[in-house]
Amino acid sequence: MATIKAAMPGVFYRRPAPEKPAYVDDGDAISAGQTIALIEVMKTFNEVKADESGTVAAFLVEDGDEVDVGQDIVRLEG
Amino acid sequence: MTDKIQLPPARYEYGGDEFVFVELDQAMSLEANFAGMAVTNALREEAIDGVVDICPSNASYMVQVDPDRIDPRDLVTELRRLEASVGTLPEDYVLKTRVVDVPVLFNDPWSHETLMRFRDRHQDPEATDLEYAARINGFDGMQGVIDAMTSAPWIVTMLGFVPGLPFCYQLVPRERQIQVPKYVRPRTDTPERTFGFGGAFAVVYPVRGAGGYQMFGMAPAPVFDLSQSLPDFAEDISFPKANDVLRYRAIDMAEFEATRAEVEAGTFRYRIREAEFEPAALLADPDAVNRELLEVLYR
Amino acid sequence: MNRLLVRAGGLYTTVQDTGRFGHYHMGMPPSGAMDIYSAVVANMLVGNADDAAVLEATYVGPKLEFTDDRLLAVTGADAPVTLNDEPVEPWTAVRVRPGDVLAFAMIRAGCRVYVAVSGGIDVPVYLDSRSTYTLTGMGGHEGRKLVDDETLQLAADGQATGSGGAVVPENLRPDLDCPAELRTVVGLCSYRLTEDALASFLGTEWKVTKDADRVGYRLRGGKLDFTEREQPFGAGSDPANVVDLGYPIGSIQVPGGDEPIVLLNDAVTGGGYATIGTVISVDRDRIAQAKTGESVRFRSVDLDTALAARRDRRERIEQVRQQLGR
């Protein structure tokens, strides 16, 4: 099953700013290179990009959770 | 300063294998700063192999060593010897320094905008930093605290935090010193050239960044110039030097803008005068020495 | 020729050498490679001087294309390395040719990788060093981290003719096991902590927070109490406040009592928080490889142990030099 993994550790955010909507929701189609979340580390917010196209089955990490390098953050359908 | 401050025995500490830290007193005083100046000046003259850097601080100092060339314990032995021989400045010691006019626009719009963004990190969210400082120091309004800060000059007692930031201590008796706490939680932003105040120290922030000092104003002239385009920065990217005497002078918006234009044009020069004074005389009669220093500056 | 093409900059990749010294008194930290051992050994592998400029990459490595014949070595954190999509060994001198592309996969252990290229990264020397200090934008490559699609200059005298293959044996590669144990000389203003707090500091497994970079590492995991006192003149009213003083590199402060900060190569050089000890110089290499989310512990050691550890690291570096015949 395909997943998108965190390339760096830090704090995981699903939206670009607290008052903004989430980048993507469960069931959304995403394309390779699309920003799907942010990871904050070393005082910067870094975009998490999809490495391949697909459909989001589920987010495996809650907004505001700490993530580790290599951790699965999104499961893709199919 | 009428009651001369007796310093406790110096405390020698190892900051790992690469640093020696020497605390001259836990409290700030000119006596402690002058004692540090005496030892660090003497150490600098000895040019000991393995001493990488000598960093005088407010009431302490720090020496960075290369432990492959000098055992930090041997350095401490030498520092103790220096403390015994020159640890206090002799009565007739004359400090050669420069006196510099540093214009400041107090209660400026830029630091005001920033401080309003960080009210939730401040002791008194209802007041501005200057109003708060005036109140806790017993002044009627902010003009009182501005007058107090600009009436007597300051001495640079430490450089650091970030490159070129001068910590300045006012040359007045302790009972006339202004004191304010640092922010409850440090800010994540401070404009470049903000005039800040924390503990008993005034600073000018060299670069934009985090900071915990109260924000009172804005200097039109830089203290740090990486491009070295201004004549005062031809030799060094940082303008202030330890022991410099700075006079903070309150200016209005018109002078602020005129000075900014000079800085932008690359023509600005600080008003600098060579001066000398006896620290012992300063401790005995600060007002008299300050009058002379300001007279030299504006002669 | 003599150029290195940066196809992707990675997350935070900077040019670093062994540091810029003699300016701490005016507030300028040394910068330089955070993990000195890995940087020096990378240089040795490619035949550079120990203090030649290398690339230091945090978490996500860069993608680099070569334009001439060079030797290359990758050390530091454990991350899969590829050359033209084929795996190559880290801690090994690798011969590269024009058009070869170096890339990294996700790190498995550690935090920072070092990339040395024969000849060294030829950025201008600023105040006797090629190290980058991003706060003021000085040194290194334009005073900043690398970005995608730009070019770095390499020294002209680093053209390789021989083959690579020199390897650093496993026993001379650093240990990246977690939790990292950081040997610490307790002192400075440690009198500000209660006895219980000091014991708790040494007994706690501290977690590296997201605020961990070249300036310092902020940690979490316990609460330390300060002894009560009437604050000395000029210090400020918070119990963690002292009259502003110099901070050694590696020193530990505890603003608020609950989040210790270990200052590192791009440290703020002084300030008004009580310092309680200093991580020994050798173990800065170790904390440099601790990543956000991992744990570290502090172990109290005396100055003799700190100096012995430093001699030991130098001997290990000399062993590598002998093994490689440099």
Automatic annotation (TrEMBL), chain A:
GO terms for molecular function: acetyl-CoA carboxylase activity. PROSITE patterns: BIOTIN, BIOTINYL_LIPOYL. Coiled coil: none annotated. SUPFAM superfamilies: Single hybrid motif. Pathway: Lipid metabolism; fatty acid biosynthesis. It comes from the Bacteria. GO terms for cellular component: acetyl-CoA carboxylase complex. Keywords: Biotin, Fatty acid biosynthesis, Fatty acid metabolism, Lipid biosynthesis, Lipid metabolism. The keyword Electron transport does not apply. GO terms for biological process: fatty acid biosynthetic process. This protein is a component of the acetyl coenzyme A carboxylase complex; first, biotin carboxylase catalyzes the carboxylation of the carrier protein and then the transcarboxylase transfers the carboxyl group to form malonyl-CoA. This is Biotin carboxyl carrier protein of acetyl-CoA carboxylase. It comes from Halosaccharopolyspora lacisalsi.
TrEMBL record, chain B:
It comes from the Bacteria. Its EC number is 6.3.4.6. It comes from Halosaccharopolyspora lacisalsi. The keyword Metal-binding does not apply. It is an enzyme of class 6 (ligase). Residues 10-231 form the Carboxyltransferase domain. This is Urea carboxylase. Keywords: ATP-binding, Hydrolase, Ligase, Nucleotide-binding. GO terms for molecular function: ATP binding; hydrolase activity; urea carboxylase activity.
From TrEMBL, chain C:
The keyword Secreted does not apply. SMART domains: AHS2 (SM00797). GO terms for molecular function: ATP binding; hydrolase activity. Residues 25-317 form the Carboxyltransferase domain. SUPFAM superfamilies: Cyclophilin-like (SSF50891). Keywords: ATP-binding, Hydrolase, Nucleotide-binding. This is Biotin-dependent carboxylase-like uncharacterized protein.
